[in-house]
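Thread: Copper chaperone PCu(A)C, structure

OP (GT): Posting the sequence first so everyone is looking at the same thing. Length is 139 residues per the record. Can we get the structure tokens written out before standup tomorrow? I want them in the notebook alongside the other entries.
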Amino acid sequence: MLNKKIFILSLLSLNLSATEMEINNAYIKQTPPNSKNTAIFLTLTNKSEKEIALIDAKSDLSEKIELHTHIHKDKKMSMIQIPKITISPNSTTELKPGSFHIMLFDLKNPVNAETKANLTLYFDNNTSLKIEQIPSKKL
Ligand SMILES: [Cu+2]
């Protein structure tokens, strides 16, 4: 953790940028009252000339977070944990329903319209980005 640069970003804008990675349109999926799991979606834009991978995430809503994607298996969609989400140089990778997502397990509280999340993303180039006040969305 010591050599990871933490960029603390604006509370009001969800148009966040660091030197090399830009995060846009972050939101948490609202949950039914008894659901313990949800997902965070966002877009990652790599503005550098090198491939960068998202390798870990932390949030105040849950102690257990995994990077996930969906796969088609036996004509069914299922989700699996993946070690990283790679963003090619000068391109955008979208985390969205049915595709890549940040999975939150064992939620401390249900996610409703008032919920705001704080999220820290860790990348394989030894940087991290903190996003605050992420809003929820009903999907
Ligand atoms: Cu998942």
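GT: Both are above now. Quick notes for whoever picks this up: Residues 69 and 100 are 4 Å apart (CA to CA). The chain has one domain: 5-137.
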